[in-house]
Amino acid sequence: MNYRTGNCSAENCWRGRLPMMSSRLVLGWMLCCALLLAGCPMNPANQAGEGAVKTADGKTLTPVEITLNWFPEAEHGGFYAALVNGYFEEEGLAVTIKPGGPDIPVVQYVAAGQTQFGVDNADKLLLVRAQEADAVAVLAPLQDSPRCIMVQAESGIKTFDELAAKPKFTLAMNPGQPFAMYLQKKLDLSKVTVVPYGGSLVPFLTEKDFGTQAYNFSEPFNARKQNANPVNLMVSDLGFNPYTSLLITSRELIEKNPELVQKVVRASLKGWRKYLDDPHGTNTYINSLNKEMGMDILDFGVETLKPLCEPARLPAGQLGKMDPAEWTKLSQQLVEMGALEASQSAPEKAYTTQFFEAATKPEK
What we know:
There is one protein chain. This protein is of the alpha/beta class. It folds into two domains: 2-22 and 146-238, D-Maltodextrin-Binding Protein, domain 2, CATH 3.40.190; 40-144 and 243-360, Periplasmic binding protein-like II (D-Maltodextrin-Binding Protein, domain 2). It has helices spanning 23-38, 77-84, 87-90, 106-112, 122-129, 160-164, 178-186, 202-206, 219-225, 251-256, 258-277, 280-289, 295-309, 324-336, 354-360, and strands at residues 2-3, 53-54, 60-67, 93-98, 117-120, 135-139, 147-152, 169-172, 192-195, 210-215, 230-234, 246-250. Pfam families: NMT1.
C-alpha cells in the first residue's frame, strides 16, 4: 500500500470527520478533550428541571439540549422531525438542537455534562469511552452505516476485491479512522495509492481511477449533479457496520433523571418514524438551517436513509433498536485493528436498551 502525504483542513474534511492521524493520536486527542471538559460543570440552565420555559399558552417545559455531530442534514432528520412536529413539546420538553461541526467533540461534551444529549457514531463512542468518558447510547436510528467508498462506474470496479486488484488506483481516505483501518486489514491494498481525504470532489470527477470515502446519502448525489456516474462500495458489506447517528447521553443523567431520558427517546422515536414516512416539512426546516442542504439532496438523503434505518433483517416496529451482538462485534473489531486496547473494551457499558424497550412496549 502506498501513501502520499497531504493536509486535510477541518474545513475541507467535512466528511472525514477527523483529520488523518494514527489511532494513538486520535485517542490522545480524545483524552485531551475529555480532561479539559471534565472540570467544566454543566451550565445550570441546561440541567434537567432548571430554567423552565413557559409557552404562550402557559405550559411549563423542561429545557433540553441535543448537540449534533455535524451540520444539520438528513442523518439528523428524525430528531428535527420530533422538534418540528411538536413531539418533544408533547413530552413537556423545550428542546434545542445545536449543530455540530468538525471541531465539536460531542461524546466528550455529553460525558462532561456540557450538553445533555448528543448524536454520534458507535465506533467514536467506544473509542472515547476508553478514555473514561462515560457516555451511553440510548437509541440507534440507523442500523446500517452510510459509509462507503465511491468509485467511478467507468473504472469497472464493482467490488472491494476489484478495487484492491486495480493497478494504479488512487483511494482518498483518512487512514486513522476506524473504517479505513478496517479496510486496510481486510484488503490487500498494496497496489493502491492511498492519499489523504481532502473533502473535494474534484479529483473524483476528473480521474477515472480515483475513489473516495463518502456517505451514500450525500457525496454520490453531488457527483451525479456534476455528470459523474458513481458506484458506492458499502463498507458495511465488508463487515464493519457501526451504528450511526446514535442518540447518546451521560450515565449520570440516566441515573439521576431516567424520566427525562425516557421522554427524549420516546419523542425521538416518533420523530424518526415521521421523518421516514413524511419528511417534507422537516426537510424544509433543515434547509432553512443549512442552505447547503437543498431540498433535492435532502429528499435524496431520506430515501437513501430508509433502508439503512429499517433494513430487511430488522423486525417491524423495531426502528431504533440496538443489538448487543453488534456492539460486541464492533468492539472486537476495534481491538483487532489496534484502535482499542482489549483492557479498555467494555461494550456492554456503552449502551442501554431500557428506554427503547419502554418506548416500544405495547400498551395493555
